């Protein structure tokens, strides 16, 4: 089989790898049918990551189950499934409490698409081994488009987690979104669907702002800190100066959710945050537990994640097309 491999800045290529085989009865082999780039992949391809190439890329996809071990009960060959980005067993103490990104059965931060906790390959591959099929795989509900839901492995389900619990606790919250990629746009869609009274989306890209306006958000190219204005702020830029701006806009006891990958250091207004009593969470998400709820919201018809998809491209175009700057390209393969 082939796996798409990051080899240098702005450069990826197909490399041959052995076909994966089942190593236990708990495993499955899947074939991605719609895969997309996470917002952080753009930073990696631009050379801003902290891992040296080469390594297999990709950690967001909908796949077709090809083969399952004897002990797998939740999926069967032929099922369409969401493959979460992190490797997790589902039974260790961390997994049982929802910390699936910190599974103790595998090395810390074991994941697809980056060799942080071992080499698990990437989801831009012809075939993928899933070591804990029952714990990891989530069947795609009937009626959902695999292209629209290719990001459910991470960005779409993460976006649900960034806003849905907060709007449940505080209906009609005022939401600020400071973003550069798909996460911010998904957040706009979800926040308005779940009853936010006001959503302001800040992004220098006019095409992104146009999409956000289609979701009912107000938009701005940039914004000065507006003290005590927003109950919830979502920052997804990867820039510490923008994170600092975000927390300065919070109302007393407000919450800032940061989904940016901050590869470079910076300063935060800690005294102001202390005096305002805000909460800041910066976290690589434990996404597996949120995928069913995020898919259910998509199935409700109250949101439209497919509008964020910027390009639908053939699987064979991956090496040339992935390094190009696109908002949310989805690469599809004939589903035999």
Write up what this structure looks like.
- With 336 residues, the chain is an alpha/beta fold.
- It has two domains: 2-154 and 286-332, Quinone Oxidoreductase, Chain A, domain 1 (Alpha-Beta Complex); 156-282, Rossmann fold, CATH 3.40.50.720.
- It contains ten helices and 16 strands.
- The protein has helices at 39-45, 93-96, 133-136, 155-169, 182-193, 206-214, 240-248, 270-276, 291-300, 318-321, and strands at residues 2-8, 11-16, 28-36, 55-56, 61-68, 80-82, 128-130, 138-139, 174-179, 198-202, 218-220, 230-236, 250-258, 279-282, 311-314, 329-332.
- Strands 3, 5, 6, 7, 8, 15 and 16 form a seven-stranded mixed beta sheet that branches. A six-stranded parallel beta sheet has the order 11-10-9-12-13-14, with helices on both faces.
- Strand 12 (230-236), helix 7 and strand 13 form a beta-alpha-beta unit.
- It is globular.
- It starts with a strand and ends with a strand.
- The relative contact order is 0.16.
- The mean pLDDT is 95.
- This is Dehydrogenase.
- Keywords: Metal-binding, Zinc.
- It holds the Pfam family ADH_N.
- Residues 183-283 form the Alcohol dehydrogenase-like C-terminal domain.
